[in-house]
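Give me the 3D structure for UPF0434 protein F1D05_27475.
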Amino acid sequence: MAVNLDPDLLSILVCPKCRSEFRVDNEANELICTNATCALAYPVRDDIPVLLIDEARETRQENSQA
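Predicted structure for UPF0434 protein F1D05_27475 (66 residues):
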């Protein structure tokens, strides 16, 4: 299911944690923060972005054990 957001809305939305722009992940139905340090994924439910940090999914790979 593709993320169906108005392009004008998408252009003004920013990550609530770090204020970076988003990229759309249509496969996962999420908005992904473009800041590599933050990189949180926010769900889009019924074409409404849920921009709550508590609802976000971590996307960074932790490689500290290598």
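The two ends are 36 Å apart (CA to CA). Let me know if you want a second pass.
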